[in-house]
Predict the 3D structure of the following.
Amino acid sequence: MYVYLYDNFLRNQKYFSIIKAIEVKLTDYGIAGKILHLDNYIDTKQIIDNEIKRGAKTIVVVGNDKTFGHVLSRSANCDCVFGFLPIGPDNTIADVLGIPVSVEAADVLAKRRKEKLDVGWINNRYFVSQLHVPPAKLKVIYDERFSVTAQYKMEVVICNLQPFYWKNGNAGQEIVHPQDSKLEAFLRPLTRKRWWGYNYEEPSIFPFEEMEIMSDSAFTVEADGKSSKEVKIKIRLAKDKIDMIVGRNRKF
């Protein structure tokens, strides 16, 4: 039994035609199922747990990167297979998973090619796509072995499924591997300009299993669409893995 979780933004009329075309394909494949619409006030884990009790075996997220992170970060330990039908802009995760942002996403779902993917863990909650700490005065400790600081400020991006893009004169992109039992941290120190502001340096990449980020003052942490203020966070690879349907052209 398939259950489809639609993001609320898909109610916009401009998505009606693509959704209709995908639903026709799903029906042709015999994998049409129950449709539920999400909003910010719905506990997705409770919904998924209830649907699993009713016999659901496959939970399909329908939307974009934000939808994917919102659902999976709350439900990574649910006993089911997850699928993804990317629709609309802001779909970088789909490319990593080898899922086209088009009607052909239904073909990938129907083939049920499955892979187990790593999940991150931060201060007692999951994250599956990317964690971002905007520039701040930080100290970073890797695997309890060595620490990194910057003279001024430092930006930290930790990737699991979502690629890291940066631009500093030339555009850059780094695709990460969500099955290597590691998380990848990208550290970008900022150097002060002569008169005002800061310059970004090129990022350094550190694979790790556990990391601590701390500061003398509160800093912002953004993970899978959730933002909070922290003075210390511990990040590690979670014991749980996601059972995900992927495409043949995945990037890992």
In short: DSSP finds five helices and 19 strands in the chain.
